[in-house]
Please model this.
Amino acid sequence: MKMIKSFLTSCCCCCLVIQILLAAQSAAAAESKSFTSTTTTTTNIDHDDDTIPTFHTQDEQQKASDYANYFSSYADLYHQKIMLKDQHRMNAYYNAIMKNQHVFRDKVVMDVGSGSGILAVWAAKAGAKRVYAVEYTDMAKHARNVVKANGVDHIVTVIQGAVEDVKIPIEDWEAFNLQTEEDATDEECRDESMSCKHQQSQVVDIIISEWMGYFLLRESMLDSVIRARDMFLKPKSGILLPSHATMLIAPIMNEDQHHMVIEEYLEGMNDWNDYLVNAKKQYGVDMSILTEEYDKEQRDYYLKSSHYVQLDDDTILAPPIVVKTLDLAVCTLEDAKGVDEAEFSFDIESSGSGADDEEEINGFAGWFTVDFQSRTDEVGKQFGAKMTNPVHFSSSPEIGDTHWGHQVFYFTPAIPIQSNDKVTLDGTMEMIRSKQSARLYNVKFQYTIEAAADGSNNLMDMVESVYKIP
Model:
């Protein structure tokens, strides 16, 4: 209680903050029930129900909805420019390809979600004999122009469509001497069985894709990469770039941004209350019946959703903890659904020197890293190509801004930490796909707060918060 009292006495809007806290706790309890229910459902249903539905069903309405909500922005050059100007992103992919040209020489490459086509161009320039640049949106026409303008259109073919629907062009088998690792016999293929067609499509040596979303998994493009791997990649020797991925979290101090978020919530509610008065006075209509729902919308947006923030390195209060790792050569659609209950423990000490110095722990931040390296699974280590110049990419605050930013999950309220105190956060993090959209995720944190001050420890109750990643 000492910690909460200290915070409230230092807050100029203490009554309003108390109201926010009580409302958030009530909402968290309700959302936690929903989250638990969703988790139970996820573990008991077939994966197709919460993997991306667009391309392995014939539901045109789902396809149209997915295009409107996800793909449409990637058809704009403005959106592509944001990614192309991200130097950390571009350097990682460029170095992974151009510093490992021996891996690409005379190989068949597939670029999943090719966008402007720049990765496909690099693959061709690195020596690939054939590159399939797969792009679902009308950005494909721009990719064709880029490929032609860079003189590699005899190597790169741009295929507009979903990778799940792609077929290797029949004429390429002879023209580019395509081969599988396990050549099927003519007898096996006469019935044109699905298993034979699947086997005959595994002619790709390298799949390259920039599939990562906010906090790695948002957008769920990893599903398409996994399906492309299973359909097209040579299972023994084929490699994926990036090859491995890691998700991390850490506690942060980000007071100004956190306070701004709370102020925007309060301003929104004040504006609503002003509207109620005016509606009653000018039009004789009482709209206050909608206040509870309006407040819920505001809380969901400002207090119970993650926020996109470009954090500085000095905002991180403790070494980050890994909550999930992925080996792209062997991970499954089930692995792509989220993060199973991952444990964490953070010890945070105040950096203040004066007796009256007080700081805040404002929330958790999440980011990711990816690696472009040789395969590490047992089969891949034996047969896979060797990336002699591996590349590591991190979207962490220490490397500077990237277009992915950082996903911040703000506490309500912040946790104060006095000078010379130490706070320990022990708990778990879980992440699952939203019921509303398989491309979006919900994140649940459960943790205890232990404050050590003046030689005594104060253990607070369990905190449980559920956030949407919008």
The radius of gyration is 26 Å. DSSP finds 15 helices and 16 strands in the chain. The first helix runs from residue 2 to 10.
